[in-house]
C-alpha cells in the first residue's frame, strides 16, 4: 500500500502504468526477483541488503524516506487496561524510549553489535549495513510520540488503497500521554 501510494503521489497509476505481481509469498519475493525478469522489487531487510551483497540487485529508493513517517509499529491497549495499569504502560513506554535513546547515542556498528544476537541467521557485517542504511535515512524518530501528521498519513495511505472507508479522529484513537512523559526519560 505504501509503495502504491508513493507511486500515485508521483503521477504513476499502479493499475495502468505498470504490472505489480502480488501473488508471491512475502518471504520469497527477493528470491523470485533474482530468478525472473522483474525490473524492481519491494523488500524489507535483510532481503534488500542480501540482493545487493549477492550482486543481484541495488537499493534504489527507500519507501520509508519517500513516504514520510508511516507508523509501522504501534502498541495498542484497551482503555480499561490503560486506566487500571498506567504504571505498567509507562514503564513499558520508558523502556522503548530508552532503546530509542540508545540508537540516537550510538553508532550503527555499536547498535548492530548489540542487536546481533536477535538475528542469528544474519552476519554482523550485514546487520551493520542495514543499521547504517536506516541510520543514514533517519528511519528512527527521536521519541515515541505518534503525531497526528503520521496518523493522517497512515489513513491517507489506507484510504488511497481502498482499505479505509471511514476516517477516525486522531483524538479518538491515539493517546500520547505515556510517550510524552517518556520523552524526558
From TrEMBL:
<protein>
    <submittedName>
        <fullName>NMT1/THI5 like protein</fullName>
    </submittedName>
</protein>
<dbReference type="Pfam" id="PF13379">
    <property type="entry name" value="NMT1_2"/>
</dbReference>
<comment type="similarity">
    <text>Belongs to the bacterial solute-binding protein SsuA/TauA family.</text>
</comment>
<keyword id="KW-0732">Signal</keyword>
<dbReference type="GO" id="GO:0042597">
    <property type="term" value="C:periplasmic space"/>
</dbReference>
